[in-house]
């Protein structure tokens, strides 16, 4: 699949424009804009190729290479990114929640805090993998409350969370925030791991990767989420008094 959004998006995309979210065609591609959003209204500009499909029919699985040519305007208040996931839960629509699986370039702004990889901050621009749907991950589900309590004890979190992180196929690394220059973001999703590149330079390699079928998504919204190994949880929306945007000039997926 090779999409340039010119003169218009190819058939098959689901276009979402919610709250203050808009998708604007430009001479270079498509711009994801969130403007005038408030703490009382969820705003989202998104494209995906899975909405309406059962999860076992999501389009993509390893091995493949994703290439996205993108740039970013002002810093995003909320979340943004592009890559593959299983759409575990959504603020809109009637979708039954499931445990998450994803491999993507992902951003979350404070007060978001999701430190799933030990030693990596829970916000900022990252490359990330997770798969909580495997049998190995599900073995931890019955004791998850005890794990979160134990992680609050001195010295326990470091020793225990490394084991949980491996079971959940979690791997993350911070990357430089995108700016208003188009850059090439590449994700190589392999059967036994993953590799992430920016402008041809490797920024992260891992032997962790999701195993099932996932869908492509790219978005900008105004939400924040807190989910920490110590059992801290929260969710909310942020004011976006001006306009924030991400622009994508190309999406290419090669099996």
Could you list some keywords that capture this structure?
single chain; 255 residues; Jelly Rolls; eight-stranded antiparallel beta sheet; 44% strand; globular
What would your notes on this structure say?
By secondary structure, the protein is mainly beta. The protein has a single domain, classed as Sandwich (Jelly Rolls). It is built from 3 helices and 17 strands. It has helices at 135-138, 144-150, 156-167, and strands spanning 2-3, 14-18, 21-25, 30-37, 44-48, 64-72, 79-85, 101-108, 124-131, 171-174, 183-190, 193-198, 201-206, 215-221, 223-227, 233-237, 240-254. Strands 1, 3, 4, 6, 11, 12, 13 and 17 form an 8-stranded antiparallel sheet that branches. The protein has a 7-stranded antiparallel sheet with strand order 2-5-14-7-8-9-10. The radius of gyration is 18 Å and the shape is globular.
Tell the overall outline.
Answer: globular
Characterize the biggest β-sheet.
8 strands, antiparallel
Task: Outline the low-pLDDT stretches.
Answer: none
SS element count, helices: 3
- Mean residue pLDDT: 92
Q: Strand pairing plus helix content: what structural class?
A: mainly beta
Count the E strands: 17
Order of helices and strands: EEEEEEEEEHHHEEEEEEEE
Q: Radius of gyration in whole Å, from Cα?
A: 18 Å
Distance between the termini: 9 Å
Named at the architecture level, the CATH assignment is: Sandwich
Q: Per CATH, what is the topology?
A: Jelly Rolls
Beta strand %: 35-45%
Count of all domains: 1
Overall helicity: under 10%
What's the CATH class, please? Mainly Beta
């Amino acid at each position: 699949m090779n999409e340039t959004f010119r003169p218009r998006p190819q058939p098959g995309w689901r276009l979402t424009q919610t709250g203050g979210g808009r998708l604007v065609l430009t001479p270079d591609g498509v711009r994801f804009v969130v403007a005038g959003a408030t703490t009382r209204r969820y705003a989202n500009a998104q494209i995906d190729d899975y909405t309406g499909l059962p999860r076992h029919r999501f389009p993509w699985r390893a091995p493949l290479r994703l290439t996205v040519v993108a740039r970013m305007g002002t810093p995003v208040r909320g979340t943004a990114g592009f890559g593959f996931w299983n759409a575990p839960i959504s603020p809109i629509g009637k979708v039954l929640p499931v445990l998450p699986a994803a491999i993507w370039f992902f951003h979350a702004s404070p007060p978001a805090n999701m430190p799933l990889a030990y030693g990596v901050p829970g916000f900022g621009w990252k490359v990330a993998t997770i798969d909580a749907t495997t049998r190995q991950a599900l073995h931890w589900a019955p004791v998850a409350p005890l794990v979160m309590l134990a992680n609050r004890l001195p010295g326990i979190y470091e020793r225990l969370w490394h084991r949980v992180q491996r079971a959940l196929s979690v791997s993350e690394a911070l990357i430089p925030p995108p700016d208003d220059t188009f850059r090439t973001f590449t994700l190589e999703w392999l059967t036994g791991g993953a590799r992430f590149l920016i402008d041809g330079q490797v920024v992260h390699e891992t032997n962790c990767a999701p195993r099932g079928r996932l869908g492509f998504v790219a978005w900008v919204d105004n939400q924040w989420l807190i989910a920490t190994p110590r059992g801290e949880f929260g969710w909310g929306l942020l004011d976006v008094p001006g306009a924030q945007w991400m622009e994508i000039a190309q999406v290419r997926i090669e099996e």
